[in-house]
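User: Quick one: structure for sequence A, then sequence B.

Assistant: Sequence A:
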Amino acid sequence: MASVAASLPEQGQLVQVRSRQWVVNHVKPSTLPSLALKPTFDGPQHLLTLSSVEDDGLGEELQVIWEVEPAARIIEKVALPDPTGFDAPEKLDAFLDAVRWGAASTADLKNIQAPFRSGIEIEDYQLDPVVRAIQMPRVNLLIADDVGLGKTIEAGMVESELMIRHRARKILIVCPSALQIQWRDQMRDKFGLEFRIVDSSLMRELRRRRGIHVNPWSHFPRLITSIDFLKRERPLRLFRETLPAPGEPVYPRRYDLLIVDEAHNCAPSGRGKYATDSLRTQALRELAPHFEHKLFL
């Protein structure tokens, strides 16, 4: 049973903040002198970076000052259960198989996990992109299959495999506005990946819930947006705020995987004398260098 702990939580510990459960990713003490802080606290205050473990917010991050956060508490470790007997050999064998299949090694290029962790029927040709992707140190692929051959499935397997191998976490899918819901439903139903659509309604909701200074591009690790929304001045400005400032190092990159659907709509202009790139092309040119992996459909 969870109990209140007065001590400071450590990295990796489970805590309850704002009626939700989080894992502590980082603990940073304040650099201000004690006299500059509230006199009711002895010693420095601490900034905690938390990652949600709730089903409806998996991967969502939050930063809080632990000493001033109301009703924050540490969930104490639960003791291991007392052994009361032995499992059947068949059950142990199934457990060992599950551990073996789930332990995908980054160096093992022959063991592909994504097709077996998805709810889809796969054609042979759909395995080619994911096989190529895991052999590349930085994925940079163009999938140009005909309409109806399952480019969404191929992209989903690539991103799922990269996540299994811990090579991708922060993912952005850029697609036409009419396909946003389809992408979200396909990723959820066929790969078990929760994505959130960044649009004007989400920005209004986030501002109402978290304040006017919230940035929609940093509130969740897996996002979907339309290219016509992304190219606007305000969404593009907010995205720039998540990128390195001038003079800051660009490595490691801030984002892991960029997926662009209907990429021909963002193709650069020709070499004519009066040809100029569209706002779509300019937006992608600015954002693409900050992604470790890129996938164009």
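Sequence B:
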Amino acid sequence: MKVDSIIINARQIATMSGAGKGKRCAEMNDAGILENAGIAIRDGVIVELAPSAEIEAKYSWDEAIDAMGGILSPGFVDSHSHPVFVFTREDEFAMRLAGKSYVDIALAGGGIRSSIASVRAASVDELVELSIPRIRRMIELGTTTLEAKSGYGLDTQSELKQLEAIKRLNEILPIDIVATFMGAHEFPVEYKIDHDTYIKILTEEMIPAVLEQGIAEFCDIFTEAHVYSIEESRIVLRKAKEAGLKLKMHADEIEAIGGAELAAEMGCISADHLGACSDDGIRMLKEAGVVPVLLPATLFSLRSKQYA
């Protein structure tokens, strides 16, 4: 039987095979390992996984790749990223080393808000150009599918601009990029004390515009004591869900305010960060089938005293 290519002599292949759904709890210990195995590929699709000798005997091919005793695994799926921005914020590391917390820096105008002006001023082409080397580095490290969020524009035009940049990056780079709208990443400075007006913009202007643009698959929100409250988050998430967007949340990263519980209530695909998640929140995420996405390096860089 003819195939395009085979890979042989892999010491192990981690197939991650399962019952067609995400693994949970003890199931995650089983990576579906095949020993001394090979792969047959046709039209970019895996035709068969089997011992190398069987692959060589059963198929003819145009290209054979010798894995030389290496380990093969599926590409990494990075389900939480913010790659489209202008300037980095390494000055905040010095502030944290001096004793400032993430919340202290955010409330003083740093953090997410400090990225807003530069993104608003940038063109789509500039955002794409700046993002390409960041995503190429992810590809070099084995990522083949990437979720990418907007959230550094915080007005309708700038959020759509970020999503357009994500679309272009998906078209030109050898990686699958899935777009998430995150206009609720923060409250922009002009609505710092007028949350109701910005939430109205989110629900009545941004979400319809994002839907019309047709790029974003998900809607995300930063649910935290210093950003979006539980009730504010519920309003935005409900509107996004009604519009047909799938839901994600930044939840309980710094303080347990019930973000995980809300993620379960709203039927989110994932709840991310969870550094301060309560035991009830953990239980409810499990019962609702919400995927918990932990970001330990974030907590480390924030000098957090607690980890999920």
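The mean pLDDT is 93. Residues 2-72 form a domain with the Urease, subunit C; domain 1 fold (CATH 2.30.40.10).

User: Thanks, that's what I needed.
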